[in-house]
Amino acid sequence: MVLKKAGKKKGAARKRTRAAHIEGFQLRPIGVIRSTIKTRSEAPKQGSEGAPDAWFEVNPSMAPCMDGLAVGNDIIVVTWLHQGKRDVLKVHPRSDPQRRLTGVFATRSPDRPNPLGLHRVTVRAIEKNRLQIGPLEAIDGTPVVDIKPVLCGIQESA
Amino acid sequence: MVLKKAGKKKGAARKRTRAAHIEGFQLRPIGVIRSTIKTRSEAPKQGSEGAPDAWFEVNPSMAPCMDGLAVGNDIIVVTWLHQGKRDVLKVHPRSDPQRRLTGVFATRSPDRPNPLGLHRVTVRAIEKNRLQIGPLEAIDGTPVVDIKPVLCGIQESA
Question: What backbone phi and psi angles, to 5 degrees, belong to B44?
Answer without folding.
Answer: -65, 160
